[in-house]
């Protein structure tokens, strides 16, 4: 029996139903099942729950995540009066079973992935969060408050209530996943060098058209230039200078497509004074000259619905 579920950061969450349930005798007499995941959060316990052959006793603040079509019911007819919130939801892609003892730590938890922070890296890198099957969150009162909001949204069903409900569910699952991470790993703080790296990336993203000297970088980040170079290469896999060149060409590509500005004017705007140097760099990174690139984009056939 899996005790956790690995869920993609980009998963589409669709809330189907949500409510507050008070345990009565019928809870132990009838089998329940549905084609969706179902998250339960106990507001007043105990709640005696049987999921397939697994029997558990849940107390106030406990959560339990049921799989699609998993049969469940109460197993103690004498225990009545408990209450729990429940929400049924679909997730695409569907969460998969995960065991910390056997499975490899998912992407996003092993170590920071520096290239994902670079503006010039187009490839999307999915990340995974681990959601527990049974858990008691340290922020259970906040979690129950979110559940109350979710049920209210579904009951009132006004405006973009499904969108708001999906956001609330995502926040709840993230809260559970973050608390679980704190339980299974003693240290979840990102390295100080990675924080410096992100500050450096942000600075480069905003100031690449200007002259970024070593003195400028040291003054703004309060770190030695050699350290900054080492940190950037470690996480980005390229040098600071190479990234700045990629940023300039990336901006130039947009300007060649969206404006009628001359190549010389575009070169100056992205921080390269000499048009010849700019054209040489552009061809090296893009594979064609700025003029050829502009002509190719302009002459590219459009689909009928693109105007």
TrEMBL record:
SMART domains in the record: HTH_ARAC
Pfam families in UniProt: AraC_binding, HTH_18
InterPro entries in alphabetical order: AraC-bd (IPR003313), Homeodomain-like_sf (IPR009057), HTH-like (IPR037923), HTH_AraC (IPR018060), HTH_AraC-typ_CS (IPR018062), RmlC-like_jellyroll (IPR014710)
Example of a GO MF term: DNA-binding transcription factor activity
Domain HTH araC/xylS-type: 198-296
UniProt keyword annotation of Glycoprotein present: no
Keywords noted in UniProt: DNA-binding, Transcription, Transcription regulation
Keyword Isomerase listed: no
PROSITE patterns given in the database record: HTH_ARAC_FAMILY_1 (PS00041), HTH_ARAC_FAMILY_2 (PS01124)
Membrane-spanning residues: none
Protein name: HTH araC/xylS-type domain-containing protein
Organism of provenance: Paenibacillus flagellatus
